[in-house]
Amino acid sequence: xxxxxxxxxxxxxxxxxxxxxxxxxxxxxxxxxxxxxxxxxxxxxxxxxxxxxxxxxxxxxxxxxxxxxxxxxxxxxxxxxxxxxxxxxxxxxxxx
Length: 96
What we know:
Keywords: Apoplast, Secreted. It comes from Ilex paraguariensis (yerba mate). It is found in: Secreted, Extracellular space, Apoplast. One of its GO terms (cellular component) is apoplast. Helices cover 0% and strands 52% of the residues. It has 96 residues and is mostly beta strands. It has one domain (2-14, 40-94). The two termini are 25 Å apart.
């Protein structure tokens, strides 16, 4: 499964749990699935906005009973005030 968006975003499922198809697999984020994401960082939402870096990482669907996603994303800046810098985020995002 690949998902694309705007600004240019690419997400692809690279692994999933070896489970019998059940209600967890009816979701866009079935339990045990791992997705890799790559996205451009821009100065604004317009397609013509200046690219200032890239976001790369992965997220894991880790909630068996309720939707909960673990995210690990690195933001690398290649232009502008923060050129040459990067920051990373590791977070869990439970359904509320």
